[in-house]
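Morning run. Coffee first, then this:
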Amino acid sequence: MKRRKLSTAQRVQLFLDHKRTCHVCLGQIDGAREAWEVEHIIPLAMGGDDELSNMAPVHKKGCHEQKTRTEDVPAIARAKRREARHLGVKKPSDRWAYGRNSDKKAKIGGGWEYR
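And here it is:
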């Protein structure tokens, strides 16, 4: 999904609306000295909107990276696995080297040939 580009005025307004507070650690962000980013509160991959109401400022180093790595990525992977299981999608089993799903056929005398 293509992410929305925010103008400078929108970023400033978002920063001020959230009272210069990091969404993750609830600490103050010194905009002149600390790098900060705009984060989606509910990730887009989890069905979150790409609207200003779903965005908040966070510290660039530490808070945003840690939240993405420890919370967002595992939750998104779990949701994708759940969706695949719900749809009945299964990975083909590679347990048997020359089973029915294989493009090779085992010969009785040893060796193999292509089907």
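Residues 60-87 form the longest helix (28 residues). Good start to the day.
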